[in-house]
Amino acid sequence: MIRWAGRAFAAWFTSRAGLIAENLCLRQQLIVLQRRTPRPRLRAGDRRFWILACRWVPRWRESLLIVQPATVLGWHRRGWTAYWRWRSRRRRGGGRPRIAGELRALIRRMAAENSLWGHRRLQGELARLGFTVSARTVATYMRRPYDGAPSPSWREFLTRHAKDIWACDFFSVRTIFFQTLHVFFVVHHATRQILQVRVTRHSTAEWTAQQVVDACSRDRDPPRYLIRDRDGRYGEAFDRRLRGLGVRQLRTPVKAPRANALAERWIRSARNGVWIIWSSSTSATFSGCWTNTSPTSMRGDRIEGWTNARRAVRRRRPYPTRPARSSVGRCSAGCIMFISTQRDAFLRPTGRRH
Questions:
Q1: pLDDT of 171-206, one tens digit each?
Q2: Helix (H) or strand (E) holding 231
Q3: Does 116 fall in a domain?
Q4: How much is the pLDDT for 247?
Q5: Which residues of the chain have pLDDT under 50?
Q6: Averaged confidence pLDDT in the chain
Q7: Of 18, 90, 201, 210, which has the fewest beta carbons less than 10 angstroms from its beta carbon?
Q8: The dihedral of CA 152, 154, 159, 160: what is its sign?
Q9: Are 19 and 119 contained in the same domain?
Q10: pLDDT in the model for residue 50
Q11: CA–CA distance, 76 with 81 (Å, rounded to integer)
């Protein structure tokens, strides 16, 4: 009784158009319930009615009784999908008509016999012969479709040429004094050895190219391939120096860190290994120690031998006793540990809007 009284009170303030729409929705449901052969079934017209009602009737949810509102929204989504499938269907005779097979063979023959001609020149020669064709169409049919074996995958390429591949990358670190340092490193794919690590505050193309040259000058031959990303710090000077060394650059796709996964893995290890950085000299010292002692730069038996040797040393020699620290030393160590643990949380953006 109270429910009907509330509805009657709400209908008092409802506009006439709203009452007519609500009455229409109720009448439509009565028509559906009158179909008892053997049970009421919804037809395509009923579904279209409620799809339009959910768009044009403001209070359609209150008038809906035979199905759930989520069901009506599902009908709307399926109808929207069917509409765009119909609009995107392949129509007969659509698109630009294909040129004759004789003309395609003529374009390929002229391109093969005149290797220095471009598609514009070929278009002009075809126009002299009486063939009207666009320059883009000529460029499409200049080369024969490739019918050979498929090219190897990226993983197969890295496996076959691992000994001739170097990878390089940049990553940034922040010091305790909130200064940003740029770390550049070069890693060898076959041995996972870090060949060069340098830190700078201002990275340029000349400086980056010099680091690669320095990595080649230490009794090492230049690699055949160098994998890098599309960073703007690799400029024309970097490309010119590498061409002089005979190195072919392989640029990874945009936003594809897995293409240079070895370098990305070392960046993660370096970030986990360094807690706090005072200056660029501290980073350089850590880089040298990491190159000589980190198991990331070893593979196979070298990793196992390094691990066994480290365990043997721990078993034979106990840990030395630490000298007593003064109160000032303990306070300094505690401050450094607190800053190192809170550094990432302090520098990470919170995403809040003030």
A1: 998 887 888 899 999 999 999 999 999 999 999 999
A2: none
A3: yes
A4: 94
A5: 276, 282-285, 289, 291-303, 313, 317-354
A6: 76
A7: 90
A8: positive
A9: no
A10: 82
A11: 9
27: in domain: yes
Per-residue pLDDT, 320: 45
Q: List, for residues 106-118, the tens digit of each pLDDT value.
A: 998 898 888 888 8
Residue 20: name the closest of 44, 71, 47, 56 by CA.
Answer: 56
Q: Which of 94, 267, 277 is nearest to 197 (CA)?
A: 267
Domain encompassing residue 57: 10-79
Judge contact between 250 and 189, C-beta under 8 A. no
In this prediction, residue 324 carries a pLDDT of: 47
Alpha-carbon span 153 to 62, nearest angstrom: 58
Q: How far is CA 39 from the centre of its chain?
A: 53
**Is the Cβ–Cβ distance between 122 and 137 less than 8 Å?**
no
Q: What CA–CA distances, in Å, run from 338 to 101, 176, 271, 280, 329?
A: 76, 12, 17, 21, 14
DSSP string, 213-244: HHHHTTT-PPPSEEEE---TTS-HHHHHHHHH
DSSP 34-55: T--SSS----HHHHHHHHHHHH
At 216-266, the pLDDT tens digits run: 876 788 999 999 999 989 989 999 999 999 999 999 998 898 999 999 999
What 3-state class would DSSP assign to 169? strand
Q: Where would I find the beta strands (DSSP E) of the chain? A: 165-174, 180-188, 194-200, 225-228, 248-251
Please count the structural domains in the chain.
Answer: 3
In order, the DSSP letters of 246-306 are TPEEEEPPTT-GGGGHHHHHHHHHHHHH-----SHHHHHHHHHHHHHH-GGG--THHHHHH
Distance CA 190, CA 300 (A): 11
| 269-338-266 Cα angle (round to 5) | 5
| 269: helix, strand or coil | helix
Same domain flag for 309 and 210: yes
